[in-house]
User: Fold this.
Amino acid sequence: MARICSDATDEVYSSRTARKEAAHAVTDLAHQIAELPEATFRRLQLNDETRAAFVVARALKASSARARQLRHLGALLREDEEMLTGIRQTLEGNDQRQLADNKLFHDLEGLRDRLLAEVSMAAALNEAQAAFPALDQAALKSALAQYHKDSDKKAFRTVFRLLRDAAAKVTV
Assistant:
C-alpha cells in the first residue's frame, strides 16, 4: 500500500510488505512466462539477456535450480518496467484472443448441433448461410444427409470442420 509522506519531499512511500508482494507478483509472472507455449513466448518483447535466461529456465526440470533461475528472472524483469508492461499487455491480449477463440468454438458447436437436429435444421441452415457466405453448401448438405441416414460420427465431425473452415475465411 503506497502512501504519501508528510514531509516536504512529497515522495511516495511503499511499505516493505507492498514491495515484497510486488516482487512476488513479478516472480509469479516469470513462472507463467516459462510455462508459455513456444509460439506465445516468441511474441514477447524481451531483451537478449532476459530471453536467454528464459531459454535456460524453460529447459530446466522442476528443481531448486529452476526456482533459483525464475527468481533471477523476476529480478531481471523488475529492472525494466517498460519491458514488464509490454509483457503484461501481450499476455492480456493473448488471454482475450483465447477467450474469443473459445467463444467461437462453442458457437460453432451449437450451430452444428442445431444443424444436426431435424427440428431446427432449416433455421440453422439459413443462419449458417447468412453468417458464413464461404460455406460449402453442397458438402454441408451431403454431410447432414449422411448423418441423418446413419448417425455417422464422421459426418458429425465433417459438419463441424466445414463450419470451422468457413468461420476462418470470414475472420481473415
Remarks:
- Helices lie at 16-34, 38-43, 48-59, 64-79, 81-116, 121-131, 137-150, 153-171.
- The domain at 2-79 is CATH 1.10.60 (Diphtheria Toxin Repressor; domain 2).
